[in-house]
Amino acid sequence: MAAIAALALTSGPATAAESGWKLGKPRLTTPWANQVSPTNALPEYPRPQLVRENWQNLNGVWEFAGAAPGEVPPIGEKLAEKILVPYPTESALSGIQRHEDYMWYRRTFTVPRNWNVGRDNTLRINFGAVDYKAKVWVNGKEVAAHQGGYGAFSADVTSALKPKGEQEIIVGVEDRADATWQPVGKQRLVPDRGIFYEGASGIWQTVWMEPVAAKHVGTLGMVPDLKSSTLKLTVDTGGGSGLTVEAVVRDGRKVVSRSTASAAGTISLPVPKAKLWSPDSPFLYDLDVELKDGRRTVDKVSSYFGMREYGTTKGADGKLRFTLNGKILFLQSTLDQGYWPDGIYTAPTDQALRFDLEQHKVLGFNTVRKHIKTEPDRWYHHADKLGLLVWQDMPSMRTGGRPPVDAQRQFKAELKELVEQKKNWTSIVGYVPFNEGWAEWSREETGKVAESVKAQDPTRLVNAHSGVNCCDSLGDSGKGDVLDWHSYPGPAKPMPDAKRISIDGEHGGYGLEVKDHMWFGEGHAYEMVKDQATLNSRYVQNQRDVLASAQSCGISGSIYTQITDVEHEVNGFFTYDRQVKKMDFAQVRAVNQAIIRNADGSGSGAPDPGPGTPGITGVHAYKFNEGTGSSAADSVGTANATLTNTQWAGGVEGGALAFAGNGQADTGANLVNTAGSYSVSAWAKLDEAGGAFQTVVSQDTDRDSAFFLQYSGQDQRWAMSFVGLRALSPEKPEVGKWYHLTGVRDAKAGTLSLYVDGKKVASQNACSAAPSTGHTVIGRGQYGGQQVDFLRGAVDDVRLYDRPLSDAEIATLAKRD
C-alpha cells in the first residue's frame, strides 16, 4: 500500500505557486488544513474493498470555470481559474470558495505505457462522487453521464484516447442544490444559521484512473454467514462468461481457506472457527480474488470482510432488542454530520477523516449515525477497522412541501444506488431512508420504500423513518425493523413492538459557545449552558436517563446530537474546527460505557401502579357551578382552584369557566402522580382555532408541563401531549362547539391516549414519564419554565383520576343528561 500511495503522489505540480492554485480564506481551520497542497490532495487509495495494484490519482489542481446552461464543453480551451480537486467549489480548500450552478473542470493526463491500454487492457476513470449532475468528455468524446451527488461512477474511456501523449478530460457539472428537488441533505444555497449549512458542489471525492482487462471484476458482493461459518461471495464480471474465480481468505499471513468456482454464481468461502467482528474486537479477514479465463489470470483484486450478524431477540424483560452476533447490544451513538469548516463536505486529509471516528471510541461510543450525508469509502473502511457500527442515512430532498412524482422516482433511484454501493461495509448496521418527514410524500410510500431497501439488503436493519414522531412526519408506516423517535433534550422513549426494536433517534443537543472557535462568532443549541461544568453535568444526567429508558422502556439505542459543532450549531463534543474539547471526556466515556454494559435487556419494565380509586367521580373534580367568586370548588377533594383573569359562563350542564387568553384556574396542589397512571377529562370549547397552542388542563414541573390536555395549534387538532409527543384527534375542532376530552396515561401499558366525545381517537407509545410536584392548572400550560398556551374558550366538569379509565367509563362520562 505504501508503494501504491507513492505512485499516487507522482502526478501534479510541485507547489501551490507553480500550480496557480491558492487556498481560500476559511472562517475556521482544522489542524489538518495546512497539510493540504497540490501534491497531496487525498493521495490514499480510495476504494479499500476493491484494490488493484496499478492506479493513478487524478486529484490535484484542475482548471475551472463557471458556466451557463447549454454551453458546449470547452474542448481544447484553457480555463481561467484553478481548483484543487476533490474539494467542493464553495470550500476554502478548493481555492474557488463560491457556488456555481453550472461549472467546468479540465485537466490533462498521460497513460503509463506499461499499462498496455488498448492492447491487453482498457482504461477506466473513476469518480467517488460529483454533486450533482455530471458529464465527462475525454478528448472531446462524451464518455460518461451520472445524476446523483452521493454515488460513485466510472467510465471506460479507451475508445476516446489518442495513441500517445497528453489526454484531455473535461467534467461538466450542474448543481442547483435546494432550488430543485434533488437530494441535498443539509446543503442550502443560503444557510439558515440553524440546522442547514453551506452547499458543497462539484467534484468532492477522489478521481482516479486504472488499467482494467476487458474481462474483469466489476464489484464484489460479500455476505457473512455465521451459521455455516462461510462468506457468501458473488463476483460481478460485467457479463463475461466461462470465467472462474480463485479466492483466498487470509488471517494476516495465514491462509484460512482457498476456493475455486465458477464466477457465474454465489461462492461459499469457508471461514472455520470464525473470529467475529464487534466493537470490542473489530477483526477483519483479508480476501484475494483472481479472475481466470481458462488458465489465464485476467484480473486480480484484494479486499476484506468481517464476520458478523445483525438481528433482534426478546430480552429477559420480553421486549424486542437489537443483537450483534446473537447477543443483545445497546447502540450508543452520536449524530455525525460530516462537515468541515475548511473542506465543507470533504475532510482535509485522510487523518482528519479518521479523527472523528477515533474520537467516538475515545468517548465510549460504539455506533455513529451518518446524518443526511454519505462519505468516501475510506470513512467506512476506518469505521470497519475501529469497530464502530454505522447507521447510514439517505440524504434527503429539501424541506418544505411534498416532492413531485419525478423527484420521488429519482430519490428512490439514488437510494437504491446508495444501498448497492454501501452493502459490503462490515460496520453498516442499518439504513435510514427518511428523517422527520423531510420531503416525505406518502406514509404508504414510506413503508414501501422501507420494504424495498430490506429486499435489496436483507442482512441489515431498515429504519423507515427516523423521528417519525416529529416535525413534518406523515406518521408511522408500521414498516421496517425500527421505531425511532426524536426528543430534545430528551431522551426519546419509544417502546418496541412485536416486530420492531425501538431507538431514540436524536436527543441531547446541549450547547456551549467557545470564543474564537465559532463559524458565525456566536451560536445556538437545543439547550444552551453557561460553562463546561454545567455541560458535563447535563450530559451525564441525560445519559443516565438514556439508561433508565433502556431498562424500563426497552430502547435498543440512542443518538446524541452531536460529535462536533457545525456552523451555527454549538452542541458538539468538539468545536467545529476540532481544536477544543468541550466536555470532560473521562466523564462522558464512563457514563457511555455504563449504558452499554447495563442496557442488556434484563430490565423488569415499568412497575405496576396498582388499581387506583374506583368509580367515575374522580379523585378531584370541578363543576364550575358557583357562578361568582374568585375560586372554584373541588367537589371531591380539598384542592379548590384559585381563579385569575377568568369569567363565569354557561356550561354543558349548569355553569362553566371562560378564558380570554390570559387566565388560569390554579388548584394549588399536585393532583396526579405523573410517573404513574392517571386520566384527565373535561368539556371544552374554543373561541378560536388557529396556529396557537391552547391548554385545557396541565400539571406544572420545574420546566415543562408533565402533560397537556390541549388544542395543538401546530396540528390544529385536539391532543393529549407530553413534550415532543402528541396523541392527536383526526379532525380540527369547530369553534364554539363543546367537546368532551379525556387524556389517559397508562403506565403499565406504556401508552398515552386521547378520547374525543367518548371515543378513542389516538394512542401513542409512551413508555415512561417524569414525576411532577407542580400544581395542576386549568386554562394554561408550562414550557421552558414559562406560563404559556393560554386558553381562549371555556371549560366545564374537569375530573382527575389516579388510574387509566376504561373505554366504557369514558363513554359514560361523555354522555349528556
TrEMBL record:
Where do the TM regions start and end? none
What is the top-level taxon of the source organism?
Bacteria
The answer to whether keyword Transferase applies is no
Question: Region Disordered: start and end of each range?
Answer: 598-617
Q: Which GO terms describe its molecular function?
A: hydrolase activity, hydrolyzing O-glycosyl compounds
Question: Which InterPro entries does the UniProt record give?
Answer: Beta-gal/glucu_dom_sf, ConA-like_dom_sf, Galactose-bd-like_sf, GH, GH2_Domain-Containing, Glyco_hydro_2_N, Ig-like_fold, Ig-like_GH2
Q: Which residues form the LamG-like jellyroll fold domain?
A: 676-808
Query: Mind listing the UniProt keywords for this protein, alphabetically?
Result: Disulfide bond, Glycosidase, Hydrolase, Signal
Please provide the Gene Ontology terms (biological process) for this protein.
carbohydrate metabolic process
Q: Residue span of the signal peptide, if any?
A: 1-16
Query: Which family is annotated?
Result: Belongs to the glycosyl hydrolase 2 family.
Instruction: Indicate what this protein is called per its UniProt record.
Output: Beta-galactosidase
Q: From what organism does this protein derive?
A: Amycolatopsis azurea DSM 43854
